[in-house]
Amino acid sequence: MAGSIKTVGIIGAGQMGSGIAHVCALAGYDVLIHDQSAEQIEKALATVNGNMARQVSHGKLEEAQRVKGMSRIRPAMRMEDLSGVDLAIEAATEDETVKRKIFAQLCPNLNPEAILATNTSSISITRLAATTDRPERFIGIHFMNPVPVMHLVELIRGIATENITFETAREFVASLDKTITVSEDFPAFIVNRILLPMINEAIYVLYEGVGSVDAIDTAMKLGANHPMGPLQLADFIGLDTCLSIMQVLYDGLADSKYRPCPLLVKYVEAGWLGRKAGRGFYDYRGEHPVPTR
Ligand code: CAA
Ligand code: NAD
Question: Which ligand 1 atom sits closest to the C-alpha of 196?
Answer without folding.
Answer: 54
